[in-house]
Automatic annotation (TrEMBL):
Encoding gene per record: rseP
Protein name: Zinc metalloprotease
Coiled-coil ranges per UniProt: none
Signal sequence coordinates: none
Enzyme class: hydrolase
């Protein structure tokens, strides 16, 4: 149960902040947001506030922000439609009723001749006395169909009507907020647990390792590798992990004296890819530092950003296979393992996942945020947008391929963890 709760909280927080980025920047650009959803599938909870419906859905595998002007959103009244209209005190149409089943005392019935509910905002039609009337529609009018109400979206409040800059930032804000969330998580760890000094001091040398064979000892402070200054443990890791099989010159401080070693990192297989190691362990002491916690949050976010990009590059170049990828099942099982090491380790895992989600969404693949951003860049270069039907087809194919990838990854996770 603890694992289930941890998984729901972590995954829910990542999705919430991602969609919150889209939502806030859409609002800032003046785009009408119809729904803010956490989860996918059937709705289990819904609250309408203002013009937006906030929902929690059954499957905790994602979320979305549905903006006005997207597919299946437009309301079109065609000639011959019979509708009901309610007018406000200024004579503007405030409610348009389709498929009317309940009666309103002041309803006006019209047979539509023509209408524009996006730009000019009017309805022209014949009333019950067969007179041709033209009604102006209020900008915040509501369309009711079979008991469900939809707020009208004038053209200037639709996503596609906004500038490339506003559309770009609205989509980019999702991954951006994942990076911001990771920064706050790592900063919170620094504030609560203390900031690691991160000095490259060895706490233990493993048996039969290259470091032990060279004579390295616990307490040694590594200052240089191949003539490059080493200021932190992360610097040491980056200097060694890609150098398996290559002899490296180390300079360390030991009890005030300088000692030099030549060590050849050995190759170790890991789920994230093969890396070079010398066989030393690290336990950094922590200190309370309010301002340092923010620096620690930024540095850790940048470190994991670079590390995930490195692993992504290894996947692209074939240095490890698709079997190393994990889906929701794999994330759940890893969360179960991580939770055993305490709340701070679980928080670090959440921060890393948030960065990973942000980066994955920025990949220039159809149906992802990165794919949509690529179409905006192409529109800026061409001076005109790509045909919406062609773009929609590209995204549809992308969704199908992503679903296929998800099925393959999930099956691999099931095989790995349960069989």
């Amino acid at each position: 149960m603890e694992t289930v709760i941890s998984f729901i909280i972590i995954f829910g927080a990542l999705v919430f902040f991602h969609e919150l980025g889209h939502f806030l920047f859409a609002k800032r650009a003046g785009i009408l947001v119809r729904e803010f959803a956490i989860g996918m599938g059937p709705k289990i909870l819904g609250i309408t506030k203002g013009e937006t419906l906030y929902t929690v859905r059954l499957l905790p595998i994602g979320g979305y922000v549905r903006m006005a002007g997207e597919e299946m959103d437009r309301i079109i009244l065609q000639a011959g439609h019979r509708i009901g209209v309610l007018l406000d005190e200024d004579g503007l149409a405030k409610k348009i009723i389709l498929n009317q089943k309940t009666m309103y005392p002041d309803i006006m019935f019209l047979e539509v001749e023509e209408a524009d509910l996006e730009k000019e905002l009017y309805i022209k039609g014949y009333d019950e006395e067969d007179r041709l009337v033209r009604l102006q529609v209020a900008r915040d009018a509501v369309v009711e169909e079979n008991g469900a109400e939809t707020v009208l979206a004038p053209h200037d409040r639709q996503f596609d009507s906004k500038s490339i800059g506003h559309r770009f930032m609205t989509i980019f804000a999702g991954p951006l907020f994942n990076f911001i969330l990771a920064f706050f998580i790592f900063t919170a760890i620094g504030l609560l647990q203390g900031v690691p000094t991160n000095e490259p001091v060895i706490s233990e040398v493993t048996d039969d390792s290259p470091a032990e064979e060279a004579g390295m000892q616990a307490g040694d402070l590594i200052t240089e590798v191949e003539g490059t200054n080493i200021a932190s443990w992360n610097d040491l890791v980056e200097s060694v992990q890609d150098e398996a099989g290559n002899a490296l010159d180390f300079v360390v401080e030991r009890q005030g004296e300088t000692v030099e070693f030549t060590i050849t990192p050995e190759l170790v297989e890991q789920e994230q890819g093969d890396v070079g190691v010398i066989g030393v362990l690290y336990e950094s002491p922590r200190e309370q530092d309010f301002f340092g916690s923010f620096v620690y949050g930024a540095e850790t976010t940048v470190f994991w950003f670079k590390e995930i990009f490195r692993l992504l590059g290894m996947l692209v170049t074939g240095q490890f296979t698709i079997d190393a990828l994990s889906g929701p099942v794999g994330i759940y099982k890893t969360t179960e393992q991580v939770a055993q090491y305490g709340i701070f380790t679980l928080m670090s895992w959440a921060g890393m996942l948030s960065i990973n989600l942000g980066i994955m969404n920025l990949l220039p693949l159809p149906a992802l945020d990165g794919g949509r951003l690529m179409f905006f860049i192409l529109e800026a270069l061409r001076g005109k947008p790509v045909d919406r039907q062609k773009e929609g087809m590209v995204h549809f194919v992308g969704i199908m391929l992503l679903m296929l990838l998800m099925i393959v990854v999930t099956w691999n996770d099931i095989q790995k963890f349960f069989f």
